[in-house]
Amino acid sequence: MENEFLKVFDENRNEIGVATREEVHRVGHWHETFHCWFISRENDKDYIYLQIRSDSKKDYPGLLDITAAGHLLVNETVNDGIREVEEELGIVLTFTELISLGIINYSVTTGELIDKEFAHVFLHNSVHSFDDYILQKEEVSGIVRTEFHQFSGLWLGSLEEIQIEGFEVNSAGNNIVIHKTVTKDHFVPHEKSYYEAIIHQIVEIQQA
């Protein structure tokens, strides 16, 4: 995976070349990613879904993250990013089932990892149950959801902790039900402005 080739860009999104994924994160090249957030509505409550990153992941193992996400390879278009949903979650979608939230730029440095992304962000109104998910164990160890108003409160500053529910796959391959309290420390450290942008755009779509 570290030897996958990605297109690299300058800060104005002009393509300037190609580099391996390892180099992209070591040097800090701007590159393209695909993010897909699942939301749903059930019993008059709005939910947002999170993946639990596999403990075997090199970066941010075991932390809560975007429902499905990944890098766009050198030969891929944004539309090809939909493959991440099926690969990671086992959910088959078409690109027409996604709502674009645009491109969000962010830059995060964690230790030796320099992550500068032009993230093509999408939303999916999901009707799937937890039983529908077939997880890619090398990437994802579980799927959970939280009420959207709690997620918003956590990242906009009115809450210190929130409740999540869902499942995680144990070492024997069995799904274990999860109900627990989490804080920001349990999330991948994307920029706070990224989470804020996602929240504001979801609210706009819900109110439209």
Description of the structure:
This protein is of the alpha+beta class and 208 residues long. 19% of the residues lie in helices and 42% in strands. The protein has helices at 21-28, 83-89, 148-156, 192-207; strands at residues 5-9, 15-20, 30-42, 45-53, 64-65, 68-71, 99-110, 113-125, 140-147, 162-169, 175-182. Strands 3, 4, 5, 6, 7, 8, 9, 10 and 11 form a 9-stranded mixed β-sheet that branches. Strand 10 (162-169) and strand 11 (175-182) form a beta hairpin. Helix 3 (148-156) packs across helix 4. The longest helix has 16 residues, at 192-207. The chain starts with a strand and ends with a helix.
Summarize the structure.
By secondary structure, the protein is of the alpha+beta class.
Domain unit count: 1
Mean pLDDT: 96
Please, what is the CATH homologous superfamily? Nucleoside Triphosphate Pyrophosphohydrolase
Provide the low-confidence segments as ranges: none
Beta strands, count: 11
Helix and strand string, N-terminal first?
EEHEEEEHEEEHEEH
Distance between the termini: 40 Å
- Please compute the radius of gyration using only Cα atoms: 17 Å
Give the proportion of residues in helices.
10-25%
Largest sheet: 9 strands, mixed
**Overall spatial form:** globular
Structural class: alpha+beta
CATH architecture term: Alpha-Beta Complex
CATH topology: Nucleoside Triphosphate Pyrophosphohydrolase
What is the CATH C level class, in words? Alpha Beta
Strand content: 35-45%
